[in-house]
């Protein structure tokens, strides 16, 4: 399974850096110089302070002074899923390519972007000197997962096995605890929003049952779980009749795993999606075939 970015902006920024041509400027003896001519360059530009690193004084809010406080306040105000959509729109629209072109037209030759370390590095396990770890988790033992699925005429079965060296389920909000999520689209419709035949299910480690977060599902969906060496495993059984009938031969499907190592969700893995929007868009589910159908 692949790791989802903490915010879409972090992904976009890193991808842009990776794909960019070498910058026209470099440093030499403490000065910024033109890479081609070697002449000193006077940097003139803009500071993009509130984009990836929101701070209270920039928002006119004196009671919040760090990104985590902003994240928690907005999630409590509108709910975690709407908060995720808020941050997606915020990061996509705060700074655009047209903005950068306008800055260049004004005479700018540089941008200063404030970065949030927790978007680029795990909070724990860092050494006192380079090389530092630049990934959302330090190792597969910290957080990794795999799953398999089976089906018959009555049920869909999933087994999700998670490697997680710190198990936490103290938060009353299930999505902030160690948990697994299953997304289903019975007709593989790949629509832009949820409707008939679309479901989001969540099983939280250490808690009984399965929560139906999206979709109109009947009774009978069940889960069993156990702690394993280095993590936990969850088995989920989904009666087709609870979903209104059997799908296939192709299903929209995704499986996500949430990780909480401290006091809230810090990381997330997905089998298929490349952004944390499966709770909004069945269009980004993967496709599974019911073999033998």
Report on the structure:
By secondary structure, this protein is an alpha+beta fold. It has two domains: 2-120, no CATH class; 143-289, Immunoglobulin-like (Sandwich). 19% of the residues lie in helices and 30% in strands. The strands form four sheets. Strands 1, 8, 9, 10, 13, 14 and 15 form a seven-stranded antiparallel β-sheet that branches. A four-stranded antiparallel β-sheet has the order 6-7-12-11, with no helix packed on it. Strand 9 and strand 10 form a beta hairpin. The longest helix is centred in the first third of the chain and has 15 residues, at 80-94. The protein is elongated and about 75 Å long. The two termini are 26 Å apart.
Mean pLDDT: 81
Question: First CA to last CA: what distance?
Answer: 26 Å
Number of folding domains? 2
Major β-sheet annotation: 7 strands, antiparallel
What is the alpha-carbon Rg in Å?
22 Å
The level-1 CATH class of the largest domain: Mainly Beta
Low-confidence regions: 5-21
Number of helices: 6
Percent of residues in β-strands: 25-35%
Question: How many beta strands in the DSSP annotation?
Answer: 15
Mass-distribution shape? elongated
């Amino acid at each position: 399974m692949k790791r989802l970015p903490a915010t879409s902006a972090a992904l976009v920024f890193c991808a842009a850096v990776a794909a960019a041509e070498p910058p026209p400027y470099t440093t030499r003896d403490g000065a910024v110089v033109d890479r081609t001519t070697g002449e000193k360059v006077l940097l003139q530009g803009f500071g993009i302070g509130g984009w990836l690193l929101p701070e209270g004084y920039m928002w006119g809010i004196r009671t919040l002074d760090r990104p985590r406080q902003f994240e928690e306040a907005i999630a409590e105000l509108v709910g975690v899923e709407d908060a995720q959509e808020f941050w997606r729109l915020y990061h996509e629209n705060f700074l655009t390519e047209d903005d950068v072109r306008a800055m260049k037209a004004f005479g700018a030759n540089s941008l200063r972007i404030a970065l949030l370390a927790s978007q680029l590095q795990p909070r724990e396990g860092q050494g006192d000197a380079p090389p530092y770890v630049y990934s959302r988790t330090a190792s597969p033992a910290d957080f990794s997962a795999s799953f398999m699925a089976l089906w018959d005429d009555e049920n869909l079965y999933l087994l999700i096995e998670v490697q997680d060296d710190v198990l936490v389920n103290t938060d009353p909000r299930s999505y902030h605890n160690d948990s697994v999520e299953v997304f289903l689209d019975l007709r593989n419709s790949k629509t832009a929003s949820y409707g008939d035949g679309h479901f989001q299910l969540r099983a939280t480690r250490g808690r009984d049952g399965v929560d139906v977060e999206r979709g109109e599902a009947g009774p009978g969906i069940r889960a069993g779980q156990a702690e394993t060496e280095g993590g936990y495993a969850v088995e989920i059984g989904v009666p087709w009749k609870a979903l209104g009938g059997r799908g296939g031969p192709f299903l929209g499907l995704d499986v996500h795993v949430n990780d909480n190592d401290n006091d809230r969700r810090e990381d997330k893995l997905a089998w298929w999606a490349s952004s944390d929007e499966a709770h909004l868009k069945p269009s980004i589910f993967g496709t599974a075939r019911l073999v033998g159908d």
